[in-house]
Design a protein that fits this description.
Elements: H1 3-32, H2 34-55, H3 57-71, H4 75-102, H5 107-110, H6 114-142, H7 146-169, H8 174-199, H9 210-245, H10 250-268, H11 272-291, H12 295-332, H13 335-343, H14 348-363, H15 367-387, H16 394-420, H17 426-450, H18 456-477
Helix pairs in contact: 1-2, 1-7, 1-10, 1-11, 2-4, 2-6, 2-8, 2-9, 2-10, 3-4, 3-6, 3-9, 4-6, 4-9, 6-8, 7-8, 9-10, 9-15, 10-13, 11-12, 11-14, 12-13, 12-14, 12-17, 12-18, 14-16, 15-16, 17-18
Length: 505
């Protein structure tokens, strides 16, 4: 499969998967209610943190080693890599399950309630299924079975939604049904992955000498991504606690957290779909240019990628500010979610920039610095949150996230500047587009009010269209469109090597 076709396939399937996931979140919020959704999100964040240990680093390294071994005609050794992956992940899954079971007496205190603790215990079988699937998925990646892997991931989402809807209709408890559907969908997708692996000629062999090398190479990536997932766990534990410090009941605190994490944030992260596609396409190219010392190409790609991310995210700001409240009420039937979407407008650009700069840090061999920058940003987020102890509101959540994301992004940018020598002229684009977004947001809000007598969906569509069109026109008028030059082909010639740029990860 050609690179262009692979990127197109991954982007298409990713967009479909995200769309289904977003619609599923809306469905869950309506069926469960904010409080139950908050409880479910707490358990889910803990599960994802555990799962990240097995499903992040190992598939990547397995795919890399498989591709190399098959290129050398070493099919048996490629099968040994799968065997080693199965041994590592299944052993780790059992170990993690035992640890969670051993901690079961104190889980209610760690998860803000007995129900969240029960849901986490119910998810444990999915750890084993996900661990096994990761080993086979890595092999399929290495064999360039991109369509199959992406299709299975999409099928898993379809299975999960279908089973959940069926269980809701059967009268099962809402949160329990959501968890059961997660585990069942994981089991089915694992079975399909194994079937595709076997039917495609894949074989599993004894690990041989692959265990040590696979652990050594995948452990750092898994540890870093698991640490990132733990941030979600901390937020899930701290946010309801701080809401409670303000005087909200336990039920109200969970409802507020559910509105933020389960309703508003998935919508605010939607622009990342476009920017994420850019990252997947750009990062290999950027890493290659860096390794070859093509200074001009690295600088140009980095600067225009940042500008493109700002332009895409800024174009969404008028829509989120102008119609965010109405969107929250229309999609979720929840006023708190609507207000969070509106206030969270200020997070869109930091979210986009943090996404693209962290990807750049990885491509330029600065994974450790990027991780430390992320930790510093997370610490800032938590620190700002506790500054509002006793007076904690939705605005405090937004402000804390803004502070943390901005700090980690700025640190990433200065690290990239130090290693590549890029210009900081793109700050003009950042500030300029933010200023242009203000009148466009007011226009969107005003348009919604003009359509007050029409159905809410009509008003939302009209407001979003007016605000988005206005800011795109203004960005073109003020010359901010240059970010789209990231898609232009660059000359291979370079003006010397980059002195401070790492040549390996």
């Amino acid at each position: 499969m050609s690179l262009v076709k692979a990127v197109f396939t991954l982007t298409a399937f990713s967009a479909a998967d995200r769309a289904l996931g977003f619609l599923f979140k809306i469905y869950l919020s309506r069926e469960m209610g904010a409080a139950a959704l908050g409880t479910y999100q707490i358990a889910l964040s803990l599960f994802f943190a555990l799962s990240a240990l097995m499903t992040s680093g190992l598939p990547l390294i397995t795919g890399k080693k498989t591709a190399g071994l098959l290129a050398e005609g070493k099919t048996r050794e490629a099968g040994s890599v799968v065997g080693a992956g199965l041994v590592i992940n299944c052993s780790l899954a059992l170990l993690l399950a035992c640890v969670v079971l051993a901690l079961s007496p104190v889980l209610p205190a760690l998860t803000s309630g007995e129900e969240a603790a029960f849901l986490l215990l119910l998810m444990l079988p999915a750890l084993l299924f996900g661990g096994a699937q990761a080993a086979f998925r890595g092999n399929l990646w290495g064999r360039e079975k991109f369509f199959a892997v992406s299709g299975i991931e999409l099928l898993e989402q379809v299975f999960r939604i279908s089973i959940c809807v069926a269980l809701f209709a059967a009268g099962m408890g809402k949160t329990t049904a959501a968890v059961v559907s997660l585990v069942a969908a994981m089991l089915l997708s694992t079975a399909i992955t194994i079937a595709v692996f076997v039917c495609g000629g894949g074989r599993v062999h004894k690990p041989g000498g692959q265990l040590k090398s696979l652990i050594a190479e995948s452990a750092p990536i898994s540890a870093l991504r698991a640490s990132t997932s733990l941030t979600g766990v901390l937020m899930a534990a701290i946010t309801p606690f701080l809401f409670a410090s303000t005087g909200y009941t336990h039920e109200e605190s969970l409802a507020l957290y559910g509105a933020c994490a389960g309703m508003a944030m998935p919508l605010l992260y939607l622009p990342i779909t476009v920017i994420g596609s850019l990252s997947y396409a750009l990062i290999p190219e950027l890493g290659k240019a860096a390794a070859l010392g093509r200074a001009d190409e690295v600088k140009a790609r980095t600067e225009t990628s940042v500008k493109f991310s700002v332009i895409v995210s800024a174009a969404c700001m008028p829509m989120f500010w102008g119609v965010g409240r109405e969107v929250g009420e229309l999609l979720y039937g929840d006023a708190v979610a609507g207000e969070t979407i509106r206030q969270g407008t200020f997070l869109i650009i930091p979210i986009a920039l943090e996404s693209i700069t962290s990807s750049m840090m990885n491509s330029l061999g600065m994974e450790k610095q990027g991780f430390f920058n992320y930790i510093i940003g997370t610490a800032a987020t938590i620190g700002v949150m506790f500054c509002f102890y006793g007076n904690f509101t939705i605005n405090a959540v937004v402000l804390a996230m803004f502070a943390g994301l901005t700090l980690s992004t700025v640190l990433d940018i200065f690290c990239i500047k130090k290693h590549t020598g890029i210009s900081l002229g793109f700050f003009r684009t950042i500030f300029g587009t933010c200023m242009l977004a203000v009148p466009c947001a007011l226009l969107a809000e005003w348009t919604v009010r003009l359509t007050g007598g029409m159905p809410s969906a009509v008003g939302i569509a009209a407001g979003a269209a007016a605000g988005t069109a206005a800011i795109l026109l203004l960005m073109w008028a003020f010359g901010f469109y240059e970010g789209f030059t990231v898609f232009r082909k660059r000359k291979k010639a370079a003006a010397g090597r980059i002195k401070h740029l790492p040549t390996s990860g």
